[in-house]
Design goal:
By secondary structure, the protein is an alpha+beta fold. It contains seven helices and 17 strands. The longest helix has 26 residues, at about 185-210. The relative contact order is 0.15.
């Protein structure tokens, strides 16, 4: 089987799994129930620039920490009904589900400075993620899906030609029927149907794995994490905000600083003339020796050494 044919079959498989998932997982959707802590945006920015990556088959990938653990890699899916977390990731976070898959995530921190608490989610081994992980489709392990119950609180601006998405809080809180609020007999019937659908998808993924060998040439290098958000994608490379306790914050960088030069130990300096040039230069970090960043602040040039988190957010 040729490489191009394998890729085509893989994409078709994932598409079918994802379409089926919208039906199979909808029954696990949940929202604010009586007595449940209110899902809240803790950070106070008017809008958030959320960095993203595209997978080899063009899924939008976001990084997040859950209950202070991570980073975890999530697919952004506007068709998913809630935030899904794999059982392995949930175990790392100390998240325990009850009689249904519904959980409340105490803290959810998206790269880019968006912090939320009491986020409605579900712990479930989604067959589509399991299938993609089994054949190393993205080059990284996928830990979950970010869906409606989180996304509905924001106006999303998605421009795939840029390096980030824009999340703008709307102040609206969605309400969805939750399994816990249904009579036991109806809840059990719906849960059994969803479980059966997921098992069918796992069987399909397993069958596909028998003729789709794991991708050997898919490798992904996580971009370094600095905790910088830029004002725009043009000129100059002005810093809009710095995430508290992030590497850039620890080094002393501040909002309003304009990055004019970057260099790495043993290499020639890189003059910075635009935001995109700054992002490209900063992403070249390959070791923990530190990156020298020269900024223009109040008309004076200042030099800082920033040690990025090479493991990502």
């Amino acid at each position: 089987m040729t490489t191009s044919l394998k890729r085509l079959m893989t994409v078709a498989l994932c598409a079918s799994l994802w379409c089926t998932a919208a039906y199979a997982t909808q029954k696990h959707a949940s929202a604010q129930s009586p007595g449940q802590p209110v899902q809240t945006i803790v950070s106070t920015q008017k809008r958030y620039r959320i960095p993203f990556e595209l997978s080899p088959i063009d899924h939008i990938l976001l990084r997040a920490r859950v209950n202070g653990h991570g980073p975890f890699l999530f697919i952004l899916d506007t068709g998913a009904p809630t935030v899904f977390l794999s059982p392995a990731a949930a175990k790392r976070c100390g998240v325990i589900k009850g009689t249904t898959s519904r959980v409340v995530l105490n803290s959810f921190h998206l790269e880019g400075g968006l912090r939320m608490r009491n986020v409605t989610g579900a712990v479930q081994e989604l067959a589509q993620l399991q299938g993609m992980n089994n054949i190393n489709l993205t080059g990284e392990h996928l830990d979950g899906v970010i869906g409606f119950t989180l996304l509905a609180q924001f106006r999303l601006h998605i421009d795939l030609s840029r390096s980030h998405l824009i999340f703008t809080p709307t102040g609206w809180m969605p309400h969805i029927q939750t399994l816990d609020s249904l009579p036991a007999a109806q809840r059990n019937t719906l849960q059994a149907g969803a479980d059966k659908s997921q098992q069918q998808m796992r069987d399909l993924a397993k069958m596909a794995g028998s003729f789709l060998s794991p991708a050997q040439n898919v490798t992904t290098t996580r971009r370094p994490f600095y905790g910088i958000q830029f004002s725009n994608s043009g000129q100059p490379a002005s810093i809009a905000s710095v995430i508290h306790a992030a590497p850039a914050w620890s080094a002393g960088l501040q909002p309003g600083d304009q990055i004019v030069r970057v260099w790495f130990p043993g290499k020639p300096p890189i003059n910075i003339t635009s935001t995109m040039a700054a992002i490209a230069a900063l992403n070249r970090a390959t070791n923990s020796a530190g990156v020298v960043v020269v900024v223009l602040r109040d008309g004076l040039r200042k030099k800082f050494t920033v040690v990025p988190n090479l493991g990502g957010f």
